[in-house]
Specification:
The protein is an alpha/beta fold. It is about 40% helix and about 15% strand. Helix 8 runs parallel beside helix 10 (about 185-205) and helix 9 (about 170-180) runs antiparallel to helix 10.
Amino acid sequence: MAALKKNKVILVIIDGLKYQTAIEQCGFLEALVESKKARRMKMIAVLPTLSAPIYETLHTGVQPIHHGITSNDNLRKSNCDNIFSIAKTGGLVTAAAAHSFFSTLYNEDPYIPIRDQEVNDPDKPIQHGRFYSEKGYSSYNISLPSEHDLMNQGSMLVDRYKPNYLMIHSCSCDSIGHQYGGNSVEYSKQAWQVNDQLAQNIPFWMDQGYRVLVTSDHGFTESGNHGGSSEVERWTPYYDIGHPNPGIGSEEVSQLSVAPSILSILGLSIPKKMNAPLIDK
């Protein structure tokens, strides 16, 4: 599969960030929308609203009931065409700074830290990977790495390897949401912290020529849960920085559309199974 053109995309997944909290707390992202440098849309999560199933959906454009990863507890290597594998086959450079679930899904199952925590291998779908886990902590209120370190890892990958597709995955809002609930002061503060680190790194990414997409996998209930079908769990933000039609989108979009839309921006062919409509370019 040959790449038609080598545009560059960064996808930031803020795990557990619900739609309304993004609007209220992510002032930098909202400033980009207000100043007509980005487009914000409401995205509807697939079911179940759990992380691993949605990570796979965001990268394959397939419903969890069809790709088979329906729980965080049946994690395995992806058997579907996905953004990383298609980009690699198309001759593009891929990278990720993310939770170890992504290493399991797209590089190696099982995840073995001594082998997989840091990866630089042109033969892997995620060629340049920096992975972390939350093992070793007695509660959900601490997440590795810090937002500062995570976003700087992303910028380091941009500077050092110039990937065509870079995925950055932040886990801190999810961790705080489980501990304190989706309506807590602590949860709102953590969303603000993530936004603040994005404010310090997105200008650099834009200067390097990247189209930056920021979204979430799922929202959160007041009791600190997700996995169900309530609106607060399914409504997630989707920011497209560099969108040709900036502002606030009036229609809801689906997580099924993320993978084919990214492949379209990258100039790569879209598999037939990724049949959701593109998020308008």
